[in-house]
Structures are given as structure tokens and as C-alpha cells.
């Protein structure tokens, strides 16, 4: 087990719990106070039951649906997933979106809305699960009921250039979706 604690001045954090029911593939969760999307990130973790089933059941993506709601999705129902989510609002520019991988595709380049300073920016996914902080959901079920390769929805994130975020996954079987965030610490957030 390893972890990191990072502290920033002027950051507002909200934490909540939600549960994705075993028979559902989508959950909309409310945020206590609305957040500005150009300054906020979502971070979440969840528990996979001991009797974990197919990857498509246990791989979860999360993103902002609006300033007051979050959207959690998976490809297949089958297990209850308790979720702890946090939103953090910064005084710096944040860009976010979802990268969609087709079956067989291992690299997705995302065009950012503006150039970022690569020496002062970070890119990461919202999901803090066993697959790592840049993971999401996948349609890949696996070759057994246990789901053998969680990497179908896990990717490294790098800046290909100042306007391109590159996501690369090592296992390219099945469709996948990974939510991403970029914080440019060299840029203050746009005026509200």
C-alpha cells in the first residue's frame, strides 16, 4: 500500500459516498455545492467485492455531468460498488474530458482547448482503483468470470506536445473509456 498527500493553498475539497447498485450500470451523484468545471477535478475510489466478477462489471469511470452532478458508469451490471468521491477546486486552469478507445486501439491523442506549460502541468485520471490513477471502464469481460486483465481500461498519460494529451494502454482488447484531467499550474483559472 502506498499513497500521497498533497496540500495546496486555496483549494476547496468536497467528499461524499455513493453506491452503484448491483443491477445498475450508471449512477448520477450530486455534489453538495456546485463547482466551476474549469477549475475542478474529480477523484474517486471504490471497493470491488471479494467475489469479483468480469472486468466490465468492476471497471468504473467517473466524470462531471454538470457543475452539480457527477456521472459514474460501467459497461455491465453484476456487483454493488461503494464509491468514495472527492471534488477539488483549484485556483488554476483545469481541462477535462473522456478518452474513448475502440477495440484494438492502444493510443488516443486528445486535443486540449489551449496550450499548456508542460513543465508546470499534470495529467491524471479520476479513478484511484487497483488499476491505477488513470483507469476507467472497459467492455472487455475477460476469458473467465473473474476477468483476467484489468489493463484494458488503464493508460499512461503524457503530453505529446503543449496542446496534445496522449493516453496509451498496454492491453488494447475491448472498448474503453478513461476520464482525464489536466491542471496547468502556470495559468490562473479564467474569470467566472
Q: Main traits of this protein?
A:
192 residues, 13 strands, mainly beta, three-stranded antiparallel β-sheet, globular, 1 helix, 45% strand
Report on this model:
The chain has 192 residues and is an all-beta fold. Helices cover 2% and strands 45% of the residues. The protein is built from one helix and 13 strands; from the N terminus they run βββαββββββββββ. The strands form four sheets. Strands 7, 9, 10 and 13 form a four-stranded antiparallel β-sheet that branches. The protein has a three-stranded antiparallel β-sheet with strand order 1-6-3, with no helix packed on it. Strands 2-5-4 form a three-stranded antiparallel β-sheet, with no helix packed on it. β11 and β12 (164-168) form a beta hairpin.
Order of helices and strands: EEEHEEEEEEEEEE
The description of the largest β-sheet is:
4 strands, antiparallel
Shape: globular
Task: Write down the Rg.
Answer: 16 Å
Residues in β-strands, percent: over 45%
- The quaternary state of the protein chains shown equals single chain
Distance between the termini: 39 Å
Q: Structural class, from secondary structure content?
A: mainly beta
Which regions are unreliable across 5 or more consecutive residues at pLDDT < 50?
none
Count every beta strand, where a strand is a DSSP E run of 2 or more residues.
13
Tally of alpha and pi helices: 1
pLDDT averaged residue by residue: 83
* Share of helical residues: under 10%
Amino acid at each position: 500500500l502506498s499513497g500521497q498527500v498533497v496540500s495546496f493553498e486555496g483549494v476547496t475539497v468536497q467528499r461524499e459516498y455513493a453506491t452503484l447498485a448491483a443491477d445498475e450500470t450508471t449512477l448520477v451523484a450530486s455534489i453538495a455545492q456546485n463547482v466551476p468545471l474549469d477549475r475542478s477535478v474529480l477523484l474517486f475510489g471504490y471497493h470491488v467485492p471479494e467475489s469479483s466478477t468480469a472486468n466490465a462489471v468492476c471497471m468504473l469511470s467517473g466524470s462531471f455531468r454538470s457543475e452539480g452532478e457527477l456521472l459514474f458508469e460501467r459497461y455491465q451490471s453484476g456487483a454493488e460498488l461503494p464509491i468514495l468521491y472527492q471534488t477539488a477546486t483549484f485556483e488554476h486552469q483545469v481541462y477535462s474530458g473522456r478518452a474513448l478507445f475502440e477495440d484494438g486501439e492502444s493510443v488516443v491523442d486528445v486535443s486540449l482547448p489551449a496550450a499548456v506549460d508542460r513543465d508546470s502541468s499534470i495529467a491524471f485520471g479520476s479513478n484511484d482503483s487497483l488499476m491505477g490513477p488513470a483507469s476507467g471502464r472497459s467492455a472487455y469481460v475477460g476469458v473467465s468470470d473473474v476477468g483476467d486483465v484489468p489493463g484494458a481500461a488503464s493508460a499512461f498519460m503524457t503530453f505529446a506536445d503543449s496542446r496534445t494529451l496522449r493516453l496509451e494502454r498496454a492491453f488494447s482488447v475491448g472498448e474503453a473509456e478513461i476520464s482525464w484531467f489536466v491542471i496547468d499550474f502556470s495559468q490562473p483559472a479564467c474569470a467566472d
